[in-house]
Amino acid sequence: MIFGIDYQAAVSPERSGIGVYIYNLVRAISQIDKENDYKLFVPHAGKTIEVISSKIKFVGRKNIIHRLIKLDAFHGPDFKLIPLRAGKKIVTIHDLASRIDGDFMSDEFRQLTRLKIEKSISRADVIVTVSKTIKNQLEEYYPITRGKIRVVYHGISDDIVSSYSEEVRNDVLLKHGITSPYLLFVGNLETRKNLTTLIKAFQLFIEQNKSSHHLVLVGKPGWGYEKITKVFEESRIKEKIHFIGWINNQDISDLYTNADLFVFPSLYEGFGFPLLEAMRCGVPVVASDIPTHREIAGDSALFVLPNNISGYLDAFNQILSSRSKAESLIRSGKEHSQYFTWKKAAQAMIDIYSG
Description:
By secondary structure, the chain is an alpha/beta fold. It has 13 helices and 13 strands. The strands form 2 sheets. It has a 7-stranded parallel β-sheet, with helices on both faces. It has a 6-stranded parallel β-sheet with strand order 10-9-8-11-12-13, sandwiched between helices. Helix 6 packs parallel to helix 7. The mean pLDDT is 93.
């Protein structure tokens, strides 16, 4: 059988979110499926030089010849289905941020995203969501999706692992201008991630405890970044807050491992890769109390209402003042993170493609 996958969001080496999902899913599929052939649709095949496996070929999306080939199944892993001939059409819906009230995107992008989702779910034979939370929201907003949805959880990248070399970790800290000890956030720097609340909570923590901790924010700027930098510039402790941009998985593994605490204060998420990455690397996690985080993190995080600054302060104090509390979360998180693998996700998708 021949299956097609839209690979466009994974072409850039500086991947986050959906790009990470597609990149890891395809590689896990290549390790499992030795029978079927795959065509990965990219903007320009000539610019994609990576060889994944002999069963997987890159195809330019504008190549008319390949558009004439009927695929047995096509997977649009980034909300949309491109116009191809396929016996089965599958789309992944990662979140419904476009339907949620909040300063998460421009009005124009919100409308375009809603239209894209509505068009895709009307054409799809199978809809994949990355959490039960998103499945429930999708069925609420779009009743026509009932009976068509399959939940397939993400995995964790194999190269996100605990770093046991103190020398290597110190080199990475020096490379990025970071001073230990520190609290860590990883994700796009956008209003949906609620970083203004995190910065205010961190300032309160430092001022009340006279702590030597720093706050490290890893990720690329996104929607509303200027609001985040405004709060940063107004902070009385901005010398302790570090924006270091996107970094590769090896460096991020070292930063996770060396952190005293990982904080993920999002207002809304579809899944939340960094929660599980931090757990795998042995870092205690504080997360906003939203449905997706409860589902994905289980009992392995300390939860705080998203905008409760004093709640984050209490959570920081609980973990950083009690080694037993931190170690309990670390043990639980490491065990919990083992449930989420790309091998499971890949097998589930192969079954959907061929079923």
